[in-house]
């Protein structure tokens, strides 16, 4: 059976919800949240979260860190030689920076982390990649570094351009600890009266549910650096609507919810250490993607990297809105299933009218 090069377009329902008010040093604006999903209850739920946050004054958001990684794998004849190569490489980061600059106008070398297993050398290179998510940019830069290393240290053998220490599209601890993508933290302080009126619950119930479900529940499930209800739902919908590599929700959804009482009010925060997004590159040429990025203010003439950082902040705010709304629903017995059934029933009625 031969592979066919013909291309088809898969249609996914998409709506914009919100808007939501975002407050921070990099984004201070009211924006809508485009979500492409088959999980149609996600739209009204995320909208409810956005409406609640607006009533509370908006979502505060910052980026803590920003880097993209690629790990290469090389093999030495012995551990002694592996150790000597590693120690030598640490003294030549300036040369690495010069090599990387030749691969792209936007690629910048930030750091290198090393793990040695027997005679295997795992080198984890970290870069800044401008407004691109950086998959191809970091691979090309790493490839040039590998070529230079193999010439300088001919005793080494090439094993792979990716040694899984990156760690790309897999659950891991390393990405949250060392960083891969944009590290975004968002928070909102919701008055008790707003919580009761718009979320139909209390701050106390949400705090307790977060402890017992997200924290303890994820511990007994063996979750890796994760404590959330459904970050992946909002991330996937937002990624598809903005032309991102959807598989990056694997590490992107490894995030945490922090909920606490501030007097009678609800402090609610989501932390996403591994958001991998871009505003240029593969997937960004579709008309609907360009339109969504334009509406989000992510195609403006800014310094390299600033549009992608803005997009990451908006993505994190979408996650907060959806997470807040779901947790609120789950504090009330039967609400989650009831709302799903109502929305699915309404959808079938609308589809029936269209077919008549």
In short:
With 356 residues, the chain is α+β, with helices and mostly antiparallel strands. It has twelve helices and nine strands. The chain has two domains: 221 residues, 3-hydroxy-3-methylglutaryl-coenzyme A Reductase, Chain A, domain 2 (Alpha-Beta Complex); 93 residues, Alpha-Beta Plaits (2-Layer Sandwich), CATH 3.30.70.420.
Defining key terms:
Alpha-Beta Plaits; globular; 356 residues; 12 helices; alpha+beta; 3-hydroxy-3-methylglutaryl-coenzyme A Reductase, Chain A, domain 2
Reconstruct the topology from this structure.
Elements lengths: L13 E10 L5 E8 L5 H14 L3 E17 L3 H11 L3 H9 L6 E10 L2 E9 L6 H18 L4 E4 L13 H5 L2 E10 L1 H8 L3 H19 L9 H11 L7 H4 L3 E7 L2 E11 L11 H9 L10 H25 L4 H21 L1
Parallel strand pairs: 1-3
Antiparallel strand pairs: 1-2, 3-5, 3-6, 3-7, 4-5, 7-9, 8-9
Helix pairs in contact: 1-6, 1-11, 3-4, 7-11, 8-11
Describe the structure.
The protein has 356 residues and is α+β, with helices and mostly antiparallel strands. 43% of the residues lie in helices and 24% in strands. It has helices spanning 42-55, 79-89, 93-101, 135-152, 174-178, 192-199, 203-221, 231-241, 249-252, 287-295, 306-330, 335-355, and strands at residues 14-23, 29-36, 59-75, 108-117, 120-128, 157-160, 181-190, 256-262, 265-275. Strands 1, 2, 3, 4, 5, 6, 7, 8 and 9 form a 9-stranded mixed β-sheet that branches. Helix 1 packs across helix 11 (306-330) and helix 3 packs across helix 4. The radius of gyration is 23 Å and the shape is globular.
């Amino acid at each position: 059976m031969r592979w066919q090069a013909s291309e088809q377009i898969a249609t996914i329902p998409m709506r914009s919800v919100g808007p939501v008010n975002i407050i921070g040093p990099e984004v201070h604006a009211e924006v809508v949240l485009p979500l492409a999903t088959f999980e149609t209850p996600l739209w009204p739920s995320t909208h409810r979260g956005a409406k609640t946050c607006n009533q509370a004054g908006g979502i505060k958001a910052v980026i803590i860190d920003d880097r993209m990684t690629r790990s290469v794998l090389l093999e030495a004849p012995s551990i002694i030689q592996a150790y000597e190569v590693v120690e030598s490489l640490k003294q030549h980061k300036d040369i690495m920076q010069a090599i990387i600059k030749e691969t792209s106008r936007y690629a910048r070398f930030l750091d290198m982390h090393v793990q040695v297993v027997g005679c295997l050398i795992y080198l984890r290179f970290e870069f800044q990649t401008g407004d691109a998510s950086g998959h191809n940019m970091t691979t090309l830069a790493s490839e040039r570094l590998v070529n230079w290393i193999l010439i300088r240290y001919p005793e080494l053998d090439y094993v792979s351009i990716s040694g899984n220490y990156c760690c790309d599209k897999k659950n891991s601890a390393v990405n949250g600890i060392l960083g891969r993508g944009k590290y975004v933290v968002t928070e909102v302080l919701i008055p008790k009266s707003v919580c009761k009126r718009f979320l139909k619950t209390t701050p106390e119930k949400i705090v307790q549910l977060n402890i017992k479900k997200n924290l303890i529940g994820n511990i007994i499930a063996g979750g890796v650096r994760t404590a959330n209800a459904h970050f992946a739902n909002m991330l996937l919908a937002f990624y598809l609507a903005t032309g991102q590599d959807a598989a990056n929700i694997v590490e992107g959804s490894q995030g945490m919810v922090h909920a606490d009482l501030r007097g009678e009010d609800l402090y609610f925060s989501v932390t996403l250490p591994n958001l991998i997004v871009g505003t240029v590159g593969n997937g960004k040429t579709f008309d609907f993607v360009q339109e969504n990025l334009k509406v989000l203010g992510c195609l403006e003439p800014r310094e390299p990297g600033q549009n992608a950082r803005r997009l990451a902040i908006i993505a994190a705010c979408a996650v907060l809105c959806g997470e807040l709304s779901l947790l609120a629903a789950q504090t009330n017995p039967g609400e989650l299933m009831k709302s799903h059934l109502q929305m699915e029933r309404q959808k079938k009625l609308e589809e029936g009218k269209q077919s008549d």
